[in-house]
Amino acid sequence: MKKINKKRVAFASLVIICLIIIIALIINLTILPLFNNLNGVTKNKQAKAKKESYDTVSLVAVGDNIIHERVFQYASTNGTYDFTPCYKHIKKYIQDADLAFINQETILGGDTLKITGYPAFNSPSELAKNLIDTGFNMINGATNHSFDRDFEGVKAASQTWRQYQDIIYTGTYDSQSDRDTIRIIEKNGIKFALLSYTQSLNEYNTNPYKLLKQTAYAVPLLEDTAAIKADVQKAKEQADVIIVSAHWGDENEAEVTAKQQEYAQLFADLGVDLVIGTHPHIIQPVTWVNGQSGNKTLIAYSLGNFLSTMETQDTQLEGMLSLNFIKKDAKIFIDDITWTPLINHFGDNTVEVYPLAKYPDDKLAKHFVLHDKPNIIQQYKAKTRDVIGDKITIKD
């Protein structure tokens, strides 16, 4: 019996060994090549994805930051000013973007030139840090109010903004060399130039146009097309993307003027990538304009106000433009364009900006202008769709 058992064991062992060899051959001839092939496909996909990766820079832009008397009174505390509460409901959206543009409508001349509201504005210098802390890093200063404190205001503002790093401020200049310097900011390997121009200057104090003859560099005007062409050419030599801030149009008018369209076409023909329009205080369309070289320029004719205590219904509805700059195969294009409706709230001793979709119901009854308009939010949504149209995504 023992011999029989040994033979059976030996036979069984031989069978097992043969089965192992057969299974190994099957794995080697079929399964391993398949796995290697799949692994190769995965690696190829990963390599392709890596090859097709591109740099993206996000941008948000808002409109006119107007420091009326009630605004700086609200921000006044213990002999200084703090405007950060005005922006607390919008801060997240600003800080989430790589680039954040704002039109600083009123000059930051500081206390030495006396803080004043409308019509000849002069705003506290503390506002600069408050805006930067909120997340803004692209600031325009070329507006019709740039000379409200004459050249002294321009110099004071330039010195204030010059203190801060990692931001660019354009539109008012205290010397020719300052004016000749193209403002560049770099994000994710892409260089952006910001150029600023205004169509007019107010004459509340002295004649600013007479003053400009002595300091022609101080505030760039849209009518100086020769300077615009030179600026754009210089910017092209230093930056990948050119953004223009254009302070233009008619105040409180929804219709885009012929002059706005004329300048928009000029910027498109020069190869500008994006034009951010301000000044009308109410929202105007966003559209593409074809340039003479086959390029397209995105024109946001007016973002409306941002912060103010203006007392008309239309000036409380505002907009935030959001988009991405995408660099792919050495080319840069604009994508993911969206418009977020905003609302300016002032009343109950506060001045604040909210996304329209997040405006608290209980605030409306306290709004200085809108308190007796219970359906205004729906009206604002409809107006936004009517003005912006269906080619731009509108965020609720």
Automatic annotation (TrEMBL):
It comes from the Bacteria. Residues 58-310 form the Capsule synthesis protein CapA domain. Coiled coil: none annotated. The chain crosses the membrane at residues 12-35. InterPro entries: Capsule_synth_CapA, CW_Biosynth-Accessory, Metallo-depent_PP-like. Keywords: Membrane, Transmembrane, Transmembrane helix. SUPFAM superfamilies: Metallo-dependent phosphatases. Belongs to the CapA family. This is Capsule biosynthesis protein CapA. The lineage of its organism: Bacteria, Bacillati, Bacillota, Erysipelotrichia, Erysipelotrichales.
